[in-house]
């Protein structure tokens, strides 16, 4: 079975814990990793790629010391190894310009303001991982129970 990873990045441990708790229903089929900085996330992505694992999704906070979420997700989108990796930006303090930069430079697929609704986040993650699996040409059947069934049906027809 191919190993798909979700990487969650936030410098605030309590926020990171909340994201991990919300994504817990997906942890049976996907590896959910947590990082406290953009640099740590990029290092982890290098390690996972070197081990032949897939990085399906990065969920990142925006306002962090050092590298912002937009800067991290922009780096991810520029890296040819992660061209299909999906990106979600979480923020409590972003400006309108930050949101525009996230969409234009980082090519994020989704944007959530804090506090987010757990069920909407999980639904979005399911949708994006389903898209990732089909974009990568992977056999979706091994993850079928966790995927967005409407996306599966659309992609199969």
From TrEMBL:
Keyword Phosphoprotein: yes
Keyword Glycoprotein in record: no
UniProt xrefs under InterPro entries: Bact_response_regulator, CheY-like_superfamily, Sig_transdc_resp-reg_receiver
Domain of life assignment: Bacteria
Residue(s) carrying 4-aspartylphosphate: 61
Pfam families: Response_reg
Keywords tagged on the record: Phosphoprotein
SMART domains associated with the record: REC
Domain Response regulatory stretches: 5-129
The protein's name in its UniProt record: Response regulatory domain-containing protein
Organism: Vibrio stylophorae
